[in-house]
User: What shape does this take?
Amino acid sequence: MKSIQILDSDKEKLGKGAIPQILSDALSVSFDSHIGHDFFEDAAERYEYYHRKEEKVPFDLDYFNQITKGGLPNKSLNVILAGTGVGKSLAMCHFAAANLAAGLDVLYITMEMAEEKIAERIDANLLNVSLDELGLLPRDSYDKKMERLLSNTKGKLIVKEYPTASAGAGHFRHLLNELKVKRSFKPRIIYIDYLNICSSSRLKYGANVNSYTYIKAIAEELRGLAVEFDVPIVTATQTTRSGFTSSDLGLEDTSESFGLPATADFMIALISSEELQDLNQIMVKQLKNRYSDPTKHRRFVVGVDKSKMKLYDVEQSAQQDIVDDGPVFDKSDSGIRIKTEKGKFKDAFNSFS
Assistant: This one.
């Protein structure tokens, strides 16, 4: 108002040169009393923060709870890295089923498989029936199992399908708002299957945008969505071509964009081999962990029942042979044989010299 008076009136003592300072003073006025954390004055609040129990979504698997200190916190992006057919969707379906059984509301967004296929996998998990038997189950038996399941859980599961590469964070935000208004449904955790086939709300993939920038943008948007709705988001990504045959995946094996692991809060790799398949196990390796020390239980195994889409804890003896350093291949039969042969060759060479 003062600036307008200066411009409209010739009688004002202040000249037009005073207008920038007047506007600057006006813009400095704020109703937000928090303008930073004072290290000494806010020490008591900081102490309360240290001892406040963070709300998390727990796993039903012991080692996953150990490496995350009790589960996945809100406002986080969590990524599963694995090759084709190893078990990304299986793991997410199992975690979603476990959350539902624990009474949590779950939103599962799929862009790879049909809604019915995802629901079928979760059915097999919760009803403890193989996928083959599920199709042969009589209607009355199925209804009884569902009634029993419904009486034992208070959670809800919504599965929403989008066409591949046609939906992104903007569409998911609209879906969450629609579910809140129309069904009074607010998910406690969100699963997105999977990140690489989402679209970006900010960028259009084309000649001027490479895969690194595009996938990183999707990851940032999904993490922003997790912060906005105060929930953990779990998604997955593919390995590179070389990572598909690797027995010891690393962050460098993330396909398309290294910006994804840079954005994620928690990232694990699922590793399979013929030996592990014979034992009905999957190797889990920590790649990035903002919740705990990633060197503790860097590698461990979990049991897998693919017919029922289930993961389960194995006996402790199965974990004892796993060493937290060195490639997984070095601990396999082939790796041990090659290492032994190298040792013999080295001894022979030393004796010769």
